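[09:14] KT: can someone run the structure on this one? pasting the chain below
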Amino acid sequence: MNSTSPQAHDEQQDRLDATAAAATVTGLVMVYDADGGVRGELSYVWGKLRRTAHCSLCSITHGLTRERRSWTNWRDGVPVPVTVLHRNERDPDVEALSGDRTPCVLAHVDGELIYLLGPGELDACDGDLDVFERVLAGALDRSNLALADAS
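[09:31] RB: done, structure tokens below
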């Protein structure tokens, strides 16, 4: 005999239905809180040295002079395309959604962009890729999203 109450069964079924209906992320867009190009890079480095500029996404993806190998390996292993942009490289849709809330992580879902992570969540990662992975996984889970399979 099943001892699960009807209410508990309904709640469990709702969770299963929600999991089954998870929307698929077909790409990730990450936006640095810094401008690209020679001028932008120099401005960021100068600000970092003076402690007036900080980009928590930059801290996750880059060491002192170049992209971290751990980041490159992670990005290459994600089953969806990962596009990383500087503020001045955003297209109008990305700029409209991210605005001045950079750094951030956005997701492509059913032809739309969804804002997943903002400055606060990325700051909490403290430059740690493992923490970033957990924070991203939590945001995907809370938003009922799943990364598309590479197959």
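[09:33] KT: thanks! The CA atoms of residues 56 and 120 lie 9 Å apart.
[09:34] RB: yep, looked fine to me
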